[in-house]
Amino acid sequence: MRIARFSIDGNVAFGAVEGDGSGDPAGLVLDIIKGIPYADFELSGTKVPLSKVRLLPPVIGNKILGIGRNYADHAAELGNAVPEVPVVFLKPTTALIGTGDAIEYPSFSQEVHYEAELAVVIGRMCREVPRERVKDVIFGYTCANDVTARDTQRSENQWSRAKGFDTSCPLGPWVETDLDPSDLTLQCTVNGEQRQLGRTSEMIRSIEDVIVHITEAMTLLPGDVILTGTPAGVGPLSVGDEVAVTIEGIGTLTNKVIKRG
Any idea where the Fumarylacetoacetase-like C-terminal domain is (predicted)? Predict the structure, then answer.
């Protein structure tokens, strides 16, 4: 099931996406969900065309955690060794935007990069999750772009500013709850030109590895997001560019880059 978060006429709700296709809104409708979808939920039967709503980030953010250098070819392209343990960083919820929203180019950087990633959405509160129970705590998966101020990342020991600036975490277009994430095609285009192409099977640490590692340290809550790393091919974005992240079985997340006003 595809679960979207959207606004219409000033109201915000979740809805189940119905219809064929993974990205084209034509013919798709939303069946509005009663309440918040992480626990058991009911469909209201009230339906609205997807073309009539504004899609929002598909989660109400609590925490956004990223995994750095989780594809060997990406680590190599930036001259980094594969880390001995997963590199975990945090992005604030103020970084969240949805598909169609603008990435605002930060004034402190001259080298902003795209990073196409599979994102995991947590569905229940959990801590110290054993490997065999990882699937039980996952709500679903969505597309992410871990937008990074690369020059700032190189010059500062902590990645908070480089990866946490406003609008640096596009997510969407929705969460797919019924998906095997182990070997999906993941690609990124800029102005229609392919820049990244990889498969989730190329991850160094699996989703199970990552969730076990994170929950040894902290409690995860429903709606928390884990970005699982990016394949090779990262590169610069400029004001005016349109960047799109497409993941097999989910859909396409599209954003334009604008100058921060």
Answer: 63-257
81-103 per-residue burial string, b: 16 or more CB within 10 A, e: under 16: eeeeebbebebbbebbbbbebeb
Same domain, 113 and 29: no
Give how many domains the chain has, as a whole number. 2
pTM recorded for the entire structure: 0.96
What lies within 8 Å, CB to CB, of 15 at 6+ separation is 3, 4, 6, 30, 31, 32, 33, 48
Cβ density class 33-48: b for 16+ within 10 Å, e for less = beeebbeeeebeeeeb
- Are 64 and 47 in contact by the 8 Å Cβ rule? The answer is no
Q: Per residue in 101-128, pLDDT tens?
A: 999 999 999 999 999 999 999 999 999 9
User: Which sign does the torsion angle of CA 242, 245, 248, 251 carry?
Assistant: negative
Tell me how far apart the alpha carbons of residues 251 and 220 are, in angstroms, rounded to a whole number. 26
For residue 59, tell me if it sits in a domain: no
Domain that holds residue 41: 2-54
Q: What's the number of CA atoms in the CB half-sphere (13 Å) around residue 196? A: 32
Same domain flag for 181 and 83: yes
CB 3 within 8 A of CB 140: yes
For residue 207, the surrounding DSSP H or E stretch is helix 207-215
Asked whether residue 230 is assigned to any structural domain, the reply reads yes
Helix (H) or strand (E) holding 89, with range, is: strand 87-91
Backbone angles phi, psi at 143, to 5 degrees: -85, 145
**Quick check: helix, strand or coil at residue 94?**
helix
Tokens at 119, concatenated = 């994102």
